[in-house]
Amino acid sequence: MLLGIPEHQVALPGGSTKSQNDVWVLGKRDGELVSIAVEGKVAEPFDRTVAEWLERETPGKHVRLQFLGKTLGLSEMPSTIRYQLLHRTASAILEAERFNAAHALMLVHSFSQTHDWFEDYQAFAALFGIEAELNRVHRAKRVGKVTLHLGWVCGSAEYLGR
Question: pTM of the prediction?
Fold first, then answer.
């Protein structure tokens, strides 16, 4: 880890709401920079589905959804995918581009002892041809000059003061 910033916000086109990473990390591995967008979870969902997010349609939302698809290298955006996973992953890529990092990682750090919402993460990872597993980082794809990775790690409840 070279730098870690809590509550780091990344601007996205199509509105004024930024993607707010719980922690954003600029790291280095094998001589290459890595942009890591960390999403911490206990039992709360990954925001709304794309369909729910689009219920109140605005021109900006369509601009943002197109931008997210292009940034993630996705030709289709299923309406059942959780919106937060899309913009959090895009923020990892955007910061990788900004800092000339070779890799971007969207990492879910879950403190749920029952792995709440892992199915939503699995559905998201499947968009990249990944069969997601707990406590594993997967190489997703190359997007422009950045290699995208997705990961889910399980944290201990003791860190939550339980």
Answer: 0.93
